[in-house]
Amino acid sequence: VSTQSTWGEPVMRATWRLLQAAAPRTEAVLFEVDAAGIATVTLNREKAHNTFSDEVVNLLEESFQKVRSTSGVRGLFLKSHGNFFCAGADLKWMQKTASYTLEQNIADAERLGAMLYSLNTMPVPTVALVQGPAFGGGVGLVSCCDVAVAVSKATFTLSEVKLGLLPATISPYVVARIGANQSRRYMQTAERIDAARAREIGLVHEVVADQAGLDEWHAKFRAAFLENSPSGMAASKAIIARVAHNTIDSNLISMTARALSEQRASPEGTEGLAAFFGKRKPAWVP
């Protein structure tokens, strides 16, 4: 007679699944979308201070493309595990690129640039939750997000010139964020910018005391993204890019009038007005 229990194997399989679920994930970048359609991308190289490597750049680009291709995503939060938000480029990666040909270096830099562009042009609202220091490319990630919230101990450093380099691929986004005037200072001095100063120059929008403060803003923004029209937010983000720094003339006036007219006639435009006058929640609110 066998002494093995008939229920032992199923229990062992279930226990193994629970252990797997409880075990910390080891991927360099984590991606998830919750049931409400809120996406989270997390840098997960705590021991390496969440630095960029060619693998991390590729995984971030894959994650951002998943946000674009996943139906029903309403917003994206970018965050990190550990003490650092992102300490810029991985030293081993930088050492490897030193032996690249010019063509290889251009291809490598273009992959980084494409990843930043994907984040900057994301059709859903994006929020960076900065729990620690950001250097170089980490400042670029923050600048690419629509909103940034940082803890008071977070610092920001455009440190490339200390290594004989320049903040080239991140420059379009950093300059758009803090302006040419501040960029001319911090890109050349590599000064450490504390959280209060980062808010003053527009790099971050809010500064909080600790992780609990980040969690509070996460909850506020999450609620807003679920209450607001997805196509309305996307159209608003698109028109900001189209009107920023443009001359206000008849062409711009015509373009904005057309954009408003098209949104009014869109399914969510008609639903939103109908819900308002009907004193009910619009269909996109969970």
Task: Looking at this protein, list some descriptive labels.
alpha/beta, disordered N terminus, 3-stranded mixed beta sheet, globular, 286 residues, 6-stranded mixed beta sheet
Structural class of the secondary elements?
alpha/beta
Number of helices: 11
User: Mean pLDDT, nearest integer?
Assistant: 92
- From the spread of the alpha carbons, the general shape counts as globular
Per DSSP E runs of 2 or more residues, the count of β-strands stands at 9
Could you tell me how far the N terminus lies from the C terminus, measured between alpha carbons in angstroms? 57 Å
**Main sheet record:** 6 strands, mixed
Helix content: 40-55%
Cα gyration radius (Å)? 22 Å
Low-confidence sequence ranges: 1-16
Description:
Helices cover about 50% and strands about 15% of the residues. A hairpin with a 4-residue loop joins strand 1 and strand 2. The protein contains eleven helices and nine strands. The strands form two sheets. Strands 1-2-3-4-6-9 form a six-stranded mixed β-sheet, with helices on both faces. The chain has about 290 residues and is α/β, with parallel strands linked by helices.
Briefly, what is this?
The termini are far apart.
